[in-house]
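Morning. Coffee machine broken again, so started the prediction first thing and wrote up yesterday's gels while waiting. Chain of 194 residues, entered below exactly as on the submission form.
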Amino acid sequence: MYDKVKHSFFAFHRTWSPCFGNSTDCQSFFKKVRVEKVLQEISKQTDLRFFYDEKLLNSLQPVSIQMDHGPIQQALSKVFKGQNLTYQILNNTIVISEKQRTDIEITGIVRSTESALAGVTVSVEGHTTLSTKTDANGQFKLRVPENAVLVFQYMGYTTERVQIGSQRTVNVTLKQATHSWMRWLLSATVRSEK
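Came back before lunch.
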């Protein structure tokens, strides 16, 4: 069901106040309370509702956090700090889900047709923060989510994409690019040296 929800990307600047109920006292500090309790209090003070699987919250340790008047994103960042959870705001609903796990370690070697390539960028397609470079021996090691697609990029070589299934070792041979601009550059370099 979650996959069918269309994602809305818009500036969301709602604020909330940590004054609960009709009380004149503001409770801005939660001490060792369940995450679900904090979410219920946020929901009471805003027109936002939460959507999540109860199993996600049942295993969490109680939290102690200070909440101040401010953007809802700031409050939620405090609630989920250190947890394996993330959220998305879709209209007036905050969808809570598990962070995508990056617990599969992939290793391998990247080569050209002649030798190992150092400095090749190895990244996970769609995840800008999951990347590494090959070492002097062309070797790499990267933790990736399940069913990831690895992208291998190196200047002067064609980009390769490899779907990770059950593989844990990925060895790739990159082919030299044959772009017309490269031929022109090589031709111009040879001519200038004469």
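Residues 180-193 form the longest helix (14 residues). Going to sketch it on the whiteboard this afternoon.
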